Amino acid sequence: MRTFDYLRADTVAAAGAEAAQPETRLLAGGTTLLDLMKLNVERPARIVDITRIAGLDGIAVSANAIRIGALAKMSKVADHSDIKAAAPALSESLWRAASAQLRNMASIGGNLMQRTRCMYFRDPGAYPNCNKRTPGSGCAALNGVNRNHAVLGTSEACIAIYPGDFAVALVAFDAKVIVQGATERSIPVDEFFLLPGQTPHLETRLAPGEMIVGVEVPRSAALQRSHYLKVRDRTSYEFAAASAAVGIEMEPDGKTIREVRIAVGGIATKPWRLRAVEAALKGKTLDEATLRAAAASTVDGAKSSGHNAFKIDLAPKVVARALMTAGGIA
Fold first, then answer.
1. Which residues pair with 48 in a beta bridge?
2. Which of 78, 212, 246, 269 could hold 153 in an S-S bridge, CB 3.0 to 4.6 Å?
3. Whole-model pTM above 0.85?
4. CATH for 59-330, among 3.30.390.50, 1.20.1250.20, 3.30.230.10, 3.40.50.1000?
């Protein structure tokens, strides 16, 4: 690990000013940053501790929206009674994401900013060729062991998945990331994360000197009737082989789908919204055959790199199962 200077910021403005400096990283829970520093993937010269900034750990649930501060702990948000009632998928995506110890440390803002678990990215000593870590060096995963890599949103430069769960639920329900630099602005979560293209080292739309201060999720009937399903190699504390955040709003007849929201994780380079599947289900009868038929297009355009071909078969089944659970017909 590189030797670094440690600073502490008491305001968002001070943190932003420090973050604009070269080779500087912000520290909240540290559950991702410190790991990457130990691996020599992240090598900042300066660390700015933002945990003392007041007012960034609140949770507010109003009639129209849910607002969560960037420094709110994952465990606090997952256990919040109003969020459990108004947005089950948000709570589920958080408590399924990590161990209790990590959830007690990790912040919501840090969770969104976590970086890929691609083993080639995380081992610079053994694998110097990683475009996400060293632009232009190549992608070792393309011809390597790529079982846990993406089949959607990939490029010839990178096939690493986005590993998080919470962001998948946020994308499904049109949430916005609130960021602050010289001014405050909001970015739809679906636009906040970038596709790798030829610049996989650029992962979000955060500008130099900006930091996440919160997320805002509009309340809806679909969010209230939502579910987050995570399929993985073991039943706890593992990253998703495929996951789905879904929500359903029904017509008064109780049989016809009025509105549906779907996003998937574990299979793409960013949280992946399934708008075509949503459109195919609106106005349709809620039954297993209809859901499975629509879910088949989950992986339209998917590209296998070899070992990860199973995700193309798995993902539509995960989406259909999540929809059946949310719809009460599982």
1. 7, 26
2. 269
3. yes
4. 3.30.390.50
pLDDT in tens, 168-202: 999 999 999 999 999 999 999 999 999 999 999 99
Write out the E strands in 33-152: 46-49, 59-61, 65-69
Closest C-alpha to 59, from 75, 77, 74: 77
Residue found by looking up tokens 């708008």 in the block: 275
Could you tell me which residues come within 8 angstroms of residue 173 by beta carbon, excluding any fewer than 6 positions away?
87, 89, 90, 217, 218, 220, 222, 223, 226, 245, 247, 261
Q: Which of 294, 324, 326, 321 is nearest to 221 (CA)?
A: 326
- Contact by Cβ (8 Å): 29, 110: yes
Q: Which fold has domain 1-49?
A: 3.30.43
